[in-house]
Structure prediction request, 192 residues.
Amino acid sequence: RYGFNMENKMKERNWKYKITGNWFGPMVIAITTAVSGGFTFWLYTAHDGAFVGLGGLTAFFAIICVLSAYGAMSFKLLVDQNGFYFRTKPGNGRYYRYSEICNMWLSSGRETDTQEATYCNLETIEGKRSRFLVLDPHLDAVDYMIERVEAVGASREEDDRDREFVIPGKRKVGGLVIFTVLLLPVLYLIFR
Prediction:
């Protein structure tokens, strides 16, 4: 059910919707890295000591670029009438039948101060929960999946339909903390 062999089998199907990772973010970060690298090289050739700080920032951008490209290459959601294939990392893809999903819903909230994000949440019969970011062009596919899960759920008898689902409002600030810690020495070198 899992692994790279599943990838080959999944390619052969006729999918109603195909959603892969978004490449806009990695492209913007790659351009920023290239511009920052160009300025770093220019400062180095001008024998300006500020190239050290900007070089560190460029290295940070390069790491973020690689990680975001990995994320964009890894995500895959393929939808057909009987189920969907969901992958967040190479090798962890799995095909779920709609009958294996006891609930699927959309939720939204602010991840940052400026942008509101919409997520598709799913819970399997075994109780495993997953979620993924939903962009506007993919709302039709997610709506289709939710309709199919609800149709399958309505056809089977479910005693615990009144269950309450709690979505934790955890904020992921680890990246911001790391960025701040790495930025402090750079600022010290620039402004000392």
